[in-house]
Amino acid sequence: MRVVILTVCLVASTAHADDLFVGAGETYETIQDALDAATSGDVLTVRAGTYAESIRTRADGITLQGEGEVLVQTEGRVLRIDHDDILVDGMIFDGEYGDADAVTIEGSLVTLRNVEIRRASRDCVDIRGAVRDIRIEESEIHHCLWSTEPNCSSGDCRDDAHGVVADQVAGLALVNTEIHAFSGDALQLNGRDQPTLWNDIDIDGCTFWLEPLPEAEGGFAAGVVPGEDAIDTKTPDDIEGPGRLRVHNTVVFGLRNGLFENISAFNMKENVEVLFDRVTVYDTGIAFRLRGAGGRPRGAQATLRNVVVYDVDRAIRYEDNIEPVVLQNITLGAEIERFFQQASAPDDVVQSTNVLVLSDALPDEATGASNLAVGADAFVDAAGDNYRLAEGSPAVDQGETVAAVTNDRDGMPRPSGSRYDIGAYERCEDCAMDAGVDDGRADAGGRADAGGRADAGTARDDGSAGDAGVPDEGGSGCGCSAAGAEAWWPALFLLSLRRRRR
């Protein structure tokens, strides 16, 4: 009897879930009509086509998915999510540079998957209020541009339009997502003057980049680099606990020579506890700008592991009586004008272990016994910005054990020899990795591979969770197949997106 009752209950609980279809000849010709009719558990499938409408959710527990190429466009806000447990999958949202955020999220348990969000004259994605568990994955966010005058080419007419902005979110994940062409930050965590603090932010496998605009766009003149930082953090004045942020396997490039002074890849200020692990920064003004309390409970508390930096004006700027800055197994490569910049900060706050520097001498901040200055022949191809260790490199088996650093920039386990290697890469003699696969260069769409570097080109479609202080587990053994797969699959993914988009 109990089994029969349970079966009836299960049927009753799912009986209301329906499949709703949108498109020419379907029950619903507009997406909003289907959203108005949907109830919790329903799946809305939108047939391929262009839908000129602004849409918003009406119920919790809805899946909204595109079939083929689905473009939703309107001048201003395109999508508003006011409810919980929402999945949006496989759609393009184009704000046509209208005077509003393109996508707003005010519900919890929201996932945006395989979406493209573009052409907003405010923020492309605005996550509002004390929501939780927001995830953006396998997506592209671009052309978030705000100018107060046409053909803007100075800082006086530039205003902030962010790729993603959040103020109080608890649990935000950006995974395998590309953000570019923004006039604010790729990601701004703007907790200032908020009653609660954002927390548990996880950035994994992402690429954030800028370049001079190839043509006039979004109110900016051709040739302008409009944006500020890849990630910028702000916290309230009166909350003691830090906001926790983890940035993993992520690449930043092209943030240089813009309209904003002190343009940075990572502008970590105020009360934030941040772990950078397997991160590459190049072609940028300041790679890491780490800032002190500034009158707030604490300043940034930053740890850099398996980080590669090259071709920047300043690699690490530390300022305003910053907390100790922890550097573990990082590589500072070629074309760095200044390795460290001390600005109103005390001496001896940089704690460096296994730091490898392409230089004749170590900088003062990295003079410990486990750090090493080397020539270009220590690397596989320094001229090509491949900073893996060459055979016979003096950095091999010369580092100290750092228990928290369990893998290297490619994800290989440490140590692979008798001792830790110095720098971001662990040399493994028996590995079959193709050194050219993930040397830091990405495909033409800007999506970087596991090693870091990306080309500046992009597909322009205008017409168209871990805690911050917890290290990741390394792979087992010395095989490099996992790292190799991680290197090439983003390129294939981006190509599939391009085939789908206009």
Short overview:
8% of the residues lie in helices and 35% in strands. With 502 residues, it is mainly beta.
Output the keywords.
502 residues, mainly beta, 33-stranded parallel β-sheet, two-stranded antiparallel ribbon, 37 strands, elongated, disordered N terminus
Describe the structure.
With 502 residues, this protein is mostly beta strands. Helices cover 8% and strands 35% of the residues. The radius of gyration is 23 Å and the shape is elongated. The N and C termini lie far apart (57 Å).
Low-confidence stretches: 1-15, 432-502
Inertia-based shape: elongated
Question: How many angstroms separate the termini?
Answer: 57 Å
Average residue pLDDT: 86
How would you sum up the major sheet?
33 strands, parallel
Q: State the helicity in percent bands.
A: under 10%
Structure classification: mainly beta
> Which percent band covers the strand fraction?
35-45%
Number of helices: 3
* DSSP summary, beta strand count: 37
Q: Evaluate the radius of gyration.
A: 23 Å
What's the SSE blueprint?
Elements: H1 2-14, E1 19-22, H2 31-37, E2 43-46, E3 49-51, E4 55-56, E5 63-66, E6 70-73, E7 79-81, E8 86-89, E9 92-94, E10 103-105, E11 110-113, E12 116-120, E13 125-127, E14 132-137, E15 140-144, E16 146-147, E17 158-159, E18 164-166, E19 170-175, E20 178-182, E21 187-190, E22 199-204, E23 207-209, E24 231-234, E25 243-253, E26 264-268, E27 272-291, E28 301-305, E29 308-319, E30 325-328, E31 331-332, E32 336-343, E33 350-353, E34 356-358, E35 372-374, E36 379-381, E37 386-389, H3 481-500
Parallel strand pairs: 1-2, 2-5, 3-6, 4-7, 5-8, 6-9, 7-10, 8-11, 9-12, 10-13, 11-14, 12-15, 13-18, 14-19, 15-20, 18-21, 19-22, 20-23, 21-24, 22-25, 23-25, 24-26, 25-27, 26-27, 27-28, 27-29, 28-30, 29-31, 29-32, 30-33, 31-34, 34-35
Antiparallel strand pairs: 16-17, 36-37
